[in-house]
Amino acid sequence: MKLTRSITIAAFAINLNALPVFAGDASGLDPAAIDQCIEAGEGGDCADAGMQACREYAETKYTGDDPDFVEKNCLDASHQAWEAKLSDIYQALLDKEGDAGIKPQEMLRQTEHAWIGFRDSLCNYAMEAAKAREAGGDLARLKCQRDEAARHWALLNTRLEGMRE
Hints:
mainly alpha; signal; LprI-like_N
């Protein structure tokens, strides 16, 4: 799945002969928009940060016939940005729990594995429910994945902040 996303984004950039707006990213999403939203105190309400600029950029570059491509492109880029943030906060929390010993670290790992299963199940449900209503199943799944990554980041960040006090 990750390979397909990378190929899609790479093909998007190659087909348009466009230089990426942001280093290494042809989607038009600036991950700094997420950081700015978080710094402004929005926290878990930042899932949509940077999406409008991404849509506007992608609409000027994409000339294909898939009416959902721009939204898929931006949701995928946003999801990937949130996954990177989630990975960083998870690692920081794991390191902090390591100071407390092996048991908290192992419990955090188990919790994360359970969360991944929950997220996948929830987002598959969102996709199938959308398909049943003849709506965009892929869009529903991508939005769910992005939103759940942002929500989980906020949860782990709250935990980590609580440990620093």
